[in-house]
From TrEMBL:
GO terms for cellular component: nuclear pre-replicative complex; rixosome complex. It comes from Coptotermes formosanus (Formosan subterranean termite). Pfam families: WD40. This is Uncharacterized protein. WD repeats lie at residues 121-152, 272-313.
């Protein structure tokens, strides 16, 4: 195994045998397998420097990582790479320092060694399908279902103190809106800012851009949906995978040259035929002789580029989601070698002064069966569930609670006063009327008696006068 110079790394959507596998392309044997994680999402298999392998989970908001010389995931060692949502695409800078994860239409940037959440880039209008870094790590390119291809300067994003880049306020360096349908794959060539960007879309076009000037150099139009793209080692030829299971080869230095070009029948005849379903991923070897292709037919094929003949087939248990060539790291075949990069748990907040507080919640034996053992990002083998929260956020919430309690108390007192005021007025009036009623009858009795006495006196006087 130590004699392998270049290896192929693949993963499929079944996850039955392993989550990712390393192959020797010369003989087609398996060199290393990685288990214990989830099924990888398309465009999410990445190498972190020369020490780790990382994928994004297909169903959970979680990233899985392994040391290249170990089959045990780092999640089992307490490193939790939890994301704000389901990750549709993943990219790691060539030096292994920064990680960019696409969650819906947002791009989240983390510093891998510290786990700090540095920035959130917002410019896409729909889900981001693929993210690629330039070879110098200064920029990364994103393509989404909205047909946009955006070029982001990494230094600008991470220098905003965790600020969110919002559309209309801070734009990416280049915005390419030439595609009319979702972008399916991207390829970024060599040369840093002088590289070429190639994108393929469901609108049946393959477009070549110049990264330095931000101009469209070439648009190739084919008869099928385009799903994957790559270039040879010399970057003189483009390999495009289509939904018709074919891989088309096109020379960039062959005349004539126009902005929009429809390949002729002779040029379309330069194709690699062998897959039975759509091609999902392409990669060319360093020597420029071998082409690797993955497909929905659960097969990875190795092709001889000059003759366009299939050399061997690597069988998988499900549709191939990721496959690429890479130079074999030394630590992959040494159990004693320790990683040089530090991998820490990811923060969920952009606050650099965030402090976390761990709360342990013990589940009872009666309802322990309701916890899914696969949800390891919140389930611990010590039958504790770890919940983290920010102290700054807790203090802010406590202030809001105290303020709301005071407002409720004042509101209650005001309402009570207004509600009881009419009843108080009625009681006061009743008391006054009672007092008036108690004095009125006594006065009236005296008057009645006086009237009676006057009547009797008048009668006596009248009798005397008659006599």
């Amino acid at each position: 195994m130590s004699h392998a110079i270049e290896v192929a790394v693949t993963c499929d959507s079944s996850g039955q045998l392993w989550n990712a596998c390393v192959w020797d392309p010369r003989v087609g044997t398996s060199l290393m397998t990685y288990r214990g994680g989830g099924v990888a999402e398309p465009h999410s298999l990445c190498l972190v420097g020369k020490d780790y392998l990382m994928i994004s989970d297909h169903t959970k908001p979680l990233l899985h990582a392994w040391q290249l010389n170990s089959q045990q995931p780092v999640l089992a060692k307490g490193v939790r790479l939890v994301c704000p949502g389901h990750v549709s695409s993943l990219a790691v800078s060539p030096d292994g320092c920064y990680c960019v994860a696409a969650v819906a239409e947002k791009l989240h940037v983390w510093h891998i060694a510290s786990g700090r959440h540095l920035a959130v880039a917002v410019r896409h209008f729909q889900t981001v399908n693929c993210v690629r870094f330039t070879d110098d790590g200064s920029h990364f390119v994103s393509g989404g279902e909205d047909g946009l291809v955006l070029v982001w300067p990494l230094a600008y994003l991470i220098s905003n103190d965790g600020g969110e880049v919002i559309a209309g306020q801070s734009e990416p360096r280049h915005v390419f809106s030439d595609h009319s349908l979702p972008v399916q794959d991207l390829y970024v060539g060599h040369g840093g800012m002088r590289a070429h960007i190639i994108s393929v879309s469901m609108d049946r076009t393959c477009k070549v851009y110049d990264l330095a000037s931000g101009t469209l150099l070439l648009s190739l139009v084919y008869d099928c949906f385009l799903t994957a793209v790559t270039m040879g080692a010399t970057e003189m030829e483009v390999f495009v995978g289509g939904s018709d299971s074919n891989i088309y080869q096109f020379g960039l230095h062959s005349p004539p040259r126009m902005r929009e070009y429809h390949p002729t029948k002779e040029e379309k005849a330069k194709k690699f035929s062998g897959h039975s379903k759509a091609v999902t991923c392409l990669s060319a070897s360093v020597d420029g002789v071998t082409l690797l292709s993955g497909s929905l037919d659960a097969e990875v094929m190795l092709w001889h580029i000059p003759s366009r003949q299939c050399l061997r087939v690597l069988h998988h248990k499900g549709p191939v989601t990721n496959a690429f060539f890479t130079v074999a790291p030394k630590c992959m075949f040494s159990e004693e070698m320790k990683p040089t990069l530090v991998l820490r748990s990811f923060q969920k907040s952009l606050d650099p002064n965030e402090e976390t507080v761990a709360l342990n919640i013990r589940a009872t034996q009666d309802n322990w069966h309701t916890i899914d053992e696969d949800d390891v990002y919140y389930y611990d083998k010590s039958d504790h569930i770890s919940v983290t929260s920010s102290t700054a956020e807790d203090s802010r919430l406590m202030e809001q609670i105290v303020s709301l309690q005071k407002v409720n108390s004042d509101l209650y007192g005001f309402a009570l006063e207004k509600i009881l005021q009419p009843f108080c007025d009625i009681q006061v009036q009743d008391m006054k009327s009672k007092r008036q009623g108690s004095t009125q009858p006594a006065a009236s009795k005296c008057e009645v008696k006086a009237k009676k006495l006057k009547k009797k006196a008048n009668k006596k006087k009248s009798k005397k006068l008659k006599v």
